[in-house]
Specification:
Layout (H helix, E strand, L loop, with lengths): L1 H25 L30
């Protein structure tokens, strides 16, 4: 009797985990993806490694 309860509990946890994973996979389309872009400008004749411009 005790083995049946433990086996049923293990199966329940595995099924619940699989259902939660399927739910997470199917809802990926609703999340917005934000991409950061960086613009690099090459200037001839400058020896500086980096130029930081503050726009305030």
């Amino acid at each position: 009797m005790r083995n049946n309860i433990l086996g049923g509990l293990v199966i329940f946890v595995v099924v619940l985990t699989c259902l939660l994973m399927l739910d997470d996979i199917s809802n990926v389309q609703q999340q917005e993806v934000k991409k950061d872009t960086v613009q690099i400008e090459q200037i001839e004749g400058k020896t500086d490694l980096a130029v930081v411009e503050d726009r305030e």
